[in-house]
Write a structure and sequence with these properties.
Chain A: Belongs to the eIF-2B alpha/beta/delta subunits family. The complex is a heterodimer of chains A (about 500) and B (about 475). In chain A, about 50% of the residues lie in helices and about 10% in strands. Chain A has about 500 residues and is an alpha/beta fold. In chain B, helix 5 (about 90-115) crosses helix 11 (about 210-240) and helix 11 (about 210-240) crosses helix 13 (about 260-275). The chains are: A alpha/beta (about 500), B alpha/beta (about 475).
Chain lengths: ~500, ~475
């Protein structure tokens, strides 16, 4: 976590001059804060400025004149996204921490000031679960600080929507990315002396993709879409006029979205909803757009059935699915993750969405899917996966560790720490007076040896999956590599 | 009675305090209402409250006759069990105490009766119930009137009954089976019971002979027995923890679930000598707050009454143990790297299956699939002389607002939100039980049940109906 500290406070940056006033101001603020803190500790509000502070505040004032219009939204956005994930801030240097703390609520500052720098540094290391150390490559980006100037605003916005889960789900992210790229490509002009096919991919598209990756690691569907995009860019005739080429690219991307996702979804829903019979009970986990479509379509076809949704912390995606199904008039039952045995008892069909289908027939999906599939299989309930071929992957995985994503652990900390005496256990009464001394989980970074692991995906073994429904038909999990070849490599 | 505890949230500690001042009947009513309102819940608080109350009941009892005492305890016990049938620890403690009384009564009479050579005279039904089924099982159903008034299942009160008899065709066979298992208990009271009432027995033997004093002694001996039981409840965790080093080796990765003082204590004991990693699943939505508190602040002994001296236990992290908190959903993802799963039950059934916090079944099944051993730590007081037939009936459903807050009015209106509190875990998913008596295979638990409960006490309602 220490390596990729966002270069917000790096002094020497080549493109410094090109930063927007808002960014400049933010940087100035951060530096000012850091300097101040270094001299007299923790007093952010004070107007008395140090020798260096004078110049800074002057610059700040100057910037403020031109700044406000752009500054407002950006800072707000950054602030919002930081709220849930203060831990990422911690991962940065203490200086960045202080810089952030000024626009932030108290807890951050307190933490920064109380724990000495040295101890904070030593603690940081063991906050990563060793087994998954390869996945902690980079904390998710939630601010524009230090982004490349080449990143198109549409992609910037998209990145933050990714990192805050506003756009979540493999297909949704893929579509959103292609739409953002379309917009970005529209504003692209080929520099003189090179041609679009040679320049676009390496010099224009790569920074966009890198930026998206820094917000949240990209999904298999996005990877397939990017591969496809690169392929058609390379195949463009260098002599083609730029406008024409751009129009062609946009058209191709539209076609990709339409053919590989929109229509495919309809086809899969049409085929999967035949599996839902009258009087059956469909069990699903979290939320998948394609499962939602399938269920709604079956409902529209007049099939009478019941839906059980099992959900899990921290994303509670199933709640969205439950809301949408309930407004469609379906009979919905909603259970926490611990209710799986209860759900299995009455279920007659399990429908699952996918993050990606791996080439050894395993399903990569929201963490928790595997347990559900295992119990369904034990109870002889068919487990059916609905998955577009764009999510099929050439990768293989045996365990859940190599191929995964670690989300910020702060998401798992309950928002309102349980200060209200939950009379559930009898110690509550006695603890009342002690509670001030008692630590809560939100201080977990200060507690040595305590780690929180928030995985995004797990991998369901192929033997738990009865059938995979894709646009090429219903196939067994063993046929995944074949479909992958056909759909993603044969293009 | 709530007047006694105004200003404080009623809980086990307030109950125990009020127990000192209130009279027996008030305390009984208070405990019943606390149980009903779930202000005392979970096995250990229930067990402590029940044993303390019954101690008062016995102490306040004027009748010195064992039979009267048994009836009185049964009566109170039935009311407590009826108040909260799913807290089986209540019934277990009542049965244990009844066992103590019978023990003492037998001790009382045996020396005298031995010389009379009429042992069956005083308690014919009991011995019959113990002996007859072994001889001719088919008649077991009718003969021992004590145990199986199977014609009358006025059983709503105790959870044990419906499950025992719910499959009617099986009922006679089952009942006789029970008796077969427990035969030795009825025959030789001296040899069998571990811990429990053994010491009072020997003391009693030395002192008996005075006909006049005998009746008084019954009560005193019973009180001694109950106090021993209370002591057992207190030390049960450390007894279980003693075997920690036999089961945990260095560099292990151990998965546990929800917050349990027994498990915490077990791991702490091992942590003093060995370094390992604990992965803690948080049991959302019912126990995650308690779990977080345990992880961050360490455990605290569940009974908060007179042992304020009890050390506040440090969290495992302070002992250099790496603790990784995960949501329940990540258990499958990690199971392949876990060496052992340690669970704490709510109740253990006689066949080795158990009830535990919701999520335990998923964990146990995942462990089974990955061939990871599942170890269950349970005090004997959680061991219930019930065979599960209707597992659905055992599971309690809790507050749905813990899953979705009631503020989401429309959602709550239109969607069935279900929040099971317990999970049933089948015995085949468990590899080992560790109780305060040592380690046992799940298939051996019936034997421990037989050691601790008298067959005539298994159906608490039966006798009181007569």
């Amino acid at each position: 976590m220490s390596a990729p500290a966002p270069p917000s406070t790096e002094p020497a940056k080549p493109d410094e001059a090109k930063l927007s006033p808002a960014e400049l101001k933010k940087r100035a603020k951060a530096e000012k804060q850091a300097r101040r803190a270094a001299i007299k500790g923790d007093q952010p509000g004070g107007e008395s400025s140090t020798s260096g502070g004078n110049g800074e505040s002057g610059a700040q004032a100057a910037n403020a004149i031109g700044g406000p219009p752009q500054k407002k939204p950006q800072q707000q956005k950054a602030g919002q996204q930081k709220q849930g994930r203060q831990g990422n801030q911690d991962a940065r240097g203490a200086q960045g921490d202080r810089g952030a703390s000024q626009q932030q609520a108290l807890p951050l500052r307190r933490r920064g000031s109380q724990s000495g720098l040295a101890t904070a540094d030593s603690k940081k290391d063991n906050k990563q679960v060793e087994l998954f150390s390869h996945l902690y490559t980079q904390p998710r980006r939630h601010t524009v600080e230090g982004t490349s100037k080449d990143v198109h605003p549409a992609v910037l916005a998209l990145g933050f929507q990714f990192s805050s889960y506003e756009i979540c789900g493999s297909s949704a992210r893929c579509v959103a990315m292609l739409l953002a790229f379309k917009e970005a490509i529209q504003s692209y002009t080929t520099p003189t002396g090179t041609s679009l096919p040679r320049h676009l991919t390496s010099h224009f598209l790569s920074p966009q993709i890198e930026f998206l990756k820094s917000c949240r690691s990209i999904s298999e569907s996005m990877g397939n879409a990017i591969r496809y995009l690169k392929k058609i860019i390379v195949e463009i005739d260098p002599n083609m006029p730029e406008q024409e080429a751009k129009a062609y690219l946009c058209e191709e991307m539209d076609r990709f979205i339409r053919e590989r996702i929109t229509i495919t979804d309809q086809a899969i829903a049409a085929s999967a909803c035949l599996q839902i019979k009258n009087g059956s009970t469909v069990l699903t986990y979290a939320k998948s757009s394609i499962v939602e479509k399938t269920i709604l379509q079956a409902h529209a076809n007049g099939t009478k059935f019941r839906v059980i949704i099992v959900d899990s912390r921290p994303l509670f995606e199933g709640k969205h699915l439950a809301s949408s199904l309930m407004s469609a008039g379906l009979q919905v039952e909603y259970l926490p993750y611990s209710g799986i045995p209860h759900a299995i008892k009455s279920a007659s069909l399990v429908l699952l969405g996918a993050h990606s289908m791996l080439s050894n027939g395993r399903l990569q999906s929201r963490v928790g899917t595997a347990s559900l599939a295992m119990q369904a299989q034990k109870a002889d309930i068919p487990v059916i996966v609905c998955c577009e071929s764009v999510k099929f992957s050439g990768k293989v995985a045996l365990d859940n560790i190599v191929l995964n994503e670690v989300a910020p652990p702060e998401e798992l900390i309950p928002l309102a720490p349980a200060t209200g005496p939950m009379t559930a256990d009898d110690k509550a009464g006695e603890d009342d007076e002690e509670r001030s001394k008692v630590k809560t989980l939100s201080e977990w970074r200060d507690i040595p040896n305590l780690q929180i692991l928030n995985l995004m995906y797990d991998i369901t073994p192929a033997e738990y999956i009865r059938m995979v429904i894709c646009e090429y038909g219903s196939v067994p999990p063993s046929s995944v590599p074949v479909v992958h070849r056909l759909a993603n490599e044969g293009m | 009675m709530p007047a006694a505890i105004v200003g404080q949230t009623p809980s086990l500690s307030t109950f125990l305090k009020s127990l000192k001042t209130n009279d027996v009947e008030t305390s009984t009513e208070l405990l019943i209402s606390l149980l009903k309102r779930r202000q005392i819940r979970n096995s250990r608080p229930c067990a402590i409250a029940t044993s303390q109350l019954l101690l008062r009941v016995v102490a306040g009892e004027r009748h010195r006759d064992a039979q009267k005492l048994i009836e009185r305890i049964r009566n109170v016990g039935c009311r407590l069990v009826a108040a909260q049938p799913r807290e089986m620890a209540v019934g277990n403690i009542v049965r244990r105490i009844l066992g103590v009384v019978r023990e003492v009564a037998e001790e009382d009479q045996n020396p005298a009766d031995m010389s009379d050579t009429s042992p069956t005279k005083s308690e014919p039904s009991k011995l019959q119930s113990a002996l007859l089924p072994t001889l001719h099982a088919p008649t077991a159903c009718s003969t021992p009137g004590d145990v199986t008034p199977s014609t009358d299942f006025g059983l709503d009160g105790s959870q044990s009954r419906p499950s025992l008899h719910s499959v009617n065709s099986h009922a006679p066979g089952m009942t006789s089976l029970f008796n077969i298992l427990q035969t030795p208990q009825g025959r030789s009271p001296i040899g069998t019971p571990p811990g429990g009432a053994q010491t009072p027995n020997t003391g009693k033997k030395g002192r008996d002979g005075f006909e006049a004093k005998e009746k008084l002694d019954v009560k005193a001996e019973v009180i001694d027995g109950i106090k021993e039981l209370i002591d057992e409840l207190e030390i049960v965790d450390s007894q279980i923890a003693e075997s920690a080093l036999d089961h945990i080796h260095s560099n292990e990765t151990i998965l546990t679930h929800t917050s349990s003082q027994t498990v915490q204590r077990f791991l702490m004991t091992a942590a003093r000598k060995r370094k390992f990693t604990v992965i803690h699943a948080e049991a959302y939505p019912n126990d995650h707050e308690a779990t977080h508190a345990t992880i961050v602040n360490g455990g605290k002994k569940g009974s908060g009454d007179n042992e304020d001296v009890d050390e506040r236990w440090r969290p495992l992290t302070a002992m250099g143990i790496t603790v990784i908190l995960i949501p329940d959903s990540a258990v499958f993802a990690l199971m392949s790297r876990i060496n052992k799963v340690i669970l704490a039950p709510h109740t253990v059934m006689a066949n080795g299956s158990l009830l535990a916090a919701a999520g335990a079944s998923t964990i146990a099944q995942t462990a089974k699939v990955h061939h990871v051993p599942v170890v269950v730590l349970s005090g004997v007081y959680k061991l219930c002389p019930v065979y599960p037939f209707d597992t659905d009936g055992l599971i309690e459903y809790g507050d749905p607002s813990k899953v979705v807050p009631f503020q989401d009015g429309e959602f709550m209106d239109k969607v069935d939100v279900v929040n099971p509190i317990y999970d049933f875990v089948d015995s085949e998913l468990v590899d080992l039980y560790i109780t305060n008596l040592g380690g046992h295979a799940p298939s051996f638990l019936y034997r421990i049940v037989a050691d601790h409960y008298r067959p005539e006490d298994i159906d608490l309602r039966a006798k009181s109906d007569q």
